[in-house]
């Protein structure tokens, strides 16, 4: 696969670590970069967002999205990026994957987390995209908001993550 216009990179970010990985992917493979946004943004306060996300996950609530993808059918490959929240995929990304049919597309997940891994996120993506070709996902440690570490993928660390992303893209046959 070469740099191509039929690639969509959709991502959800809070502290910009997932955005940093999305931008690295775009730099390597091209495509359209889209930040996923809710109609009503989450609170800025970390404890408030954690409590809200816990409730949403328990209730299966799918928040309404501000982001709409025009001409989704034009994309053959969709990179889906999200942080691990509550050891799973954040509710807004579940909303996106529920509202948008990615059947027949190649879906490639990527994730940032606070050191605990992707949790159930990639398994949830597989369940929400049953008729898509899912390639092996990429997960990397980002910030650790609970400890006040926000954007961690910058400077030297960004260069190291870019190398890991490049190796992953080669391993899955995208580069």
Keywords:
single chain; about 180 residues; alpha/beta; six-stranded parallel beta sheet; 5 helices; about 35% helix; about 15% strand
Give a short overview.
The protein is of the alpha/beta class.
Describe the protein's topology.
Layout: E1 7-11, H1 17-29, E2 32-35, H2 46-59, E3 77-83, H3 91-99, E4 106-113, H4 121-128, E5 133-134, E6 138-141, H5 155-171
Parallel strand pairs: 1-2, 1-3, 3-4, 4-5, 4-6
What features would you describe in this structure?
The chain is an alpha/beta fold. Helix content is 35%, strand content 17%. The protein is built from five helices and six strands; from the N terminus they run E-H-E-H-E-H-E-H-E-E-H. Strands 1, 2, 3, 4, 5 and 6 form a six-stranded parallel beta sheet that branches. Helix 1 packs across helix 5 (155-171). The longest helix has 17 residues, at 155-171. The protein is globular and about 40 Å long.
Order of helices and strands: EHEHEHEHEEH
Strand portion? 15-25%
What is the residue-mean pLDDT, rounded to a whole number? Answer: 94
Radius of gyration, in Å, reads 15 Å
Number of helices: 5
Helical fraction equals 25-40%
* Class of secondary structure makeup: alpha/beta
Total E-strand runs: 6
Instruction: Kindly report how far apart the N and C termini lie.
Output: 6 Å
Shape estimate = globular
What summary fits the major beta sheet? 6 strands, parallel
Uncertain stretches: none
């Amino acid at each position: 696969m070469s740099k191509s216009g039929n690639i969509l990179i959709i991502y959800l970010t809070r502290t910009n670590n997932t955005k940093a990985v999305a931008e690295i992917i775009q730099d390597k493979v091209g495509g359209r970069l889209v930040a996923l946004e809710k109609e009503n943004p989450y609170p800025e306060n970390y404890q408030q967002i954690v409590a809200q996300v816990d409730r949403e996950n328990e209730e299966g609530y799918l928040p309404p999205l501000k982001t709409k993808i025009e001409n989704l059918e034009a994309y053959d490959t969709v990179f889906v990026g999200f942080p691990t929240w509550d050891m799973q995929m954040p509710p807004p990304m579940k909303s996106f994957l529920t509202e948008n049919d990615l059947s027949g597309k190649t879906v490639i997940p990527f994730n940032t987390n606070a050191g605990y891994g992707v949790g159930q996120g990639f398994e949830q993506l597989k369940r929400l995209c049953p008729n898509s070709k899912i390639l092996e996902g990429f997960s990397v440690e980002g910030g650790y908001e609970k400890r006040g570490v926000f954007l961690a993928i910058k400077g030297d660390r960004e260069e190291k993550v870019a190398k890991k992303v490049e190796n992953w893209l080669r391993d899955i046959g995208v580069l």
